[in-house]
C-alpha cells in the first residue's frame, strides 16, 4: 500500500511554523508603495497545504482575503500558455534578472526584452498577450481560468486596490511603454491596465494552495482529474519559480526552503513539492527586498521539519 504524503507530523509542524512565522513577521512592515496595501493588518499569517493524494490542511488566517499581486503571474502565464502556446516563453529570457523586480535598467540593456516572465516587465508583456480584445475581457478570461482550477470558487477584483495601483503605477507604465517602443508590447495601455487588474484579483491562502495543486502534479489537477497544462509547459513554470520566483532572494530561499516558490508584495508565497503537494502562505509584513518575512520563515521550518527540500 502506498504511503500517504501527509501524516501526523504535518499538523504539528504547521502549528510550529505558524508561531515561528509570526515571530519573524514582527521585523517586517506591510507594503506602502500601493496605498491600499498599507491598510492590511501586518499580524496576519496563514499556511495552507494541499497534497496531491488527500486531505488539505490549513492553520492561521487561511480564509482571510488578500490580493494576489505578483503570485498571480504564475497563473496568468499558465493561462496564456494554455491559450496561446509555449512560444510565449521564446519572446523573453528565462533568467534571473539580477536587479529589483521593477527595474528598468535591465530592460534598457536588452532592448525591451524582459528577463523573465515573473518580474514586472515580463508579467506586463504576458498580460498583454492574454486572449481578449481589451483589459476587461482579458481579466474575465483569467478569472474564469482561476475558477476552473479551484473548484468553481470566485476570484473577484478588489476595485480599491486596482484603482490604487493604477493611480500610482508610473514605473510600470514606463516599463510597458519602453517595451512598446521596441515592439515587444502591442498596446502598452491595455497591457498595463490588464496587469494592474490581475494583481488586484482576490484570493485566500486556501484558494491559492488549491489553485497551485496542478503545478505539483505534472500539470494535472488531481482533484478534478483534469489536465491543466502540458507536462513540459508545467515543468517550465515550476522551474522558473525555482530560479526567478523570489526575485533577488531566490538563492536564499533555495538554501533555506529548497523549493520552487513565487512571492508577492501582498505577502503571499506559493511553493510546490513536485509530485507531492502545494503550499501557500500569507504573511503581509515584508522585508527590504519586498518579500514576505513571516511566510518564508514558516516555510523554512516546514521544509526542515518534514524534509521537503529538493536539495536535501
Characterization of this structure:
The chain contains twelve helices and nine strands. By secondary structure, the chain is of the alpha+beta class. It has one domain (8-306): DD-peptidase/beta-lactamase superfamily (Beta-lactamase, 3-Layer(aba) Sandwich), CATH 3.40.710. The chain is globular and about 55 Å long. The mean pLDDT is 92.
The termini sit apart by 25 Å
Low-confidence stretches: none
Coarse shape? globular
Structural class: alpha+beta
Percent of residues in β-strands: 5-15%
**Biggest β-sheet, characterized?**
5 strands, antiparallel
CATH class: Alpha Beta
Look at the structure and give the mean pLDDT: 92
Q: From the alpha-carbon coordinates, what is the Rg to the nearest angstrom?
A: 18 Å
How many discrete domains?
A: 1
- Which architecture would the CATH scheme give at its second level? 3-Layer(aba) Sandwich
Order of helical and strand elements: HEEEHHHHHHHEHEEHHEEEH
Number of strands: 9
CATH topology: Beta-lactamase
Amino acid at each position: 500500500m502506498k504511503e500517504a504524503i501527509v501524516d501526523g507530523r504535518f499538523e504539528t509542524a504547521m502549528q510550529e511554523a505558524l508561531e515561528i512565522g509570526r515571530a519573524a513577521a514582527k521585523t517586517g512592515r506591510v507594503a506602502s508603495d500601493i496605498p491600499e496595501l498599507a491598510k492590511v493588518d501586518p499580524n496576519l499569517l496563514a499556511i495552507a497545504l494541499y497534497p496531491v493524494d488527500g486531505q488539505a490542511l490549513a492553520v492561521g488566517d487561511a480564509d482571510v482575503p488578500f490580493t494576489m499581486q505578483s503570485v498571480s503571474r504564475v497563473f496568468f502565464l499558465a493561462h496564456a500558455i494554455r491559450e496561446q502556446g509555449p512560444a510565449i516563453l521564446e519572446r523573453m529570457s528565462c533568467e534571473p534578472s539580477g536587479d529589483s523586480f521593477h527595474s528598468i535598467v535591465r530592460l534598457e540593456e536588452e532592448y525591451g526584452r524582459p528577463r523573465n516572465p515573473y518580474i514586472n516587465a515580463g508579467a506586463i508583456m504576458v498580460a498583454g498577450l492574454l486572449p481578449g480584445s481589451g483589459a476587461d475581457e482579458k481579466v474575465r478570461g483569467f478569472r474564469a481560468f482561476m475558477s476552473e482550477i479551484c473548484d468553481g470558487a470566485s476570484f473577484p477584483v478588489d476595485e480599491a486596490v486596482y484603482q490604487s495601483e493604477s493611480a500610482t503605477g508610473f514605473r510600470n507604465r514606463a516599463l510597458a511603454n519602453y517595451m512598446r517602443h521596441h515592439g515587444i508590447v502591442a498596446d502598452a495601455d491595455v497591457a498595463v491596465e490588464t496587469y494592474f487588474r490581475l494583481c488586484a484579483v482576490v484570493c485566500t491562502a486556501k484558494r491559492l494552495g488549491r489553485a497551485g495543486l496542478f503545478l505539483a502534479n505534472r500539470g494535472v489537477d488531481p482533484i478534478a482529474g483534469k489536465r491543466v497544462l502540458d507536462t513540459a509547459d508545467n515543468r517550465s513554470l515550476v522551474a522558473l519559480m525555482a530560479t526567478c520566483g523570489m526575485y533577488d532572494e531566490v538563492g536564499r530561499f533555495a538554501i533555506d526552503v529548497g523549493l520552487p516558490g513565487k512571492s508577492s508584495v501582498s505577502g503571499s508565497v506559493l511553493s510546490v513539492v513536485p509530485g507531492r503537494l502545494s503550499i501557500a502562505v500569507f504573511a503581509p509584513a515584508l522585508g527590504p527586498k519586498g518579500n514576505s518575512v513571516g511566510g518564508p520563515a514558516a516555510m523554512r521550518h516546514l521544509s526542515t521539519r518534514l524534509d521537503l527540500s529538493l536539495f536535501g
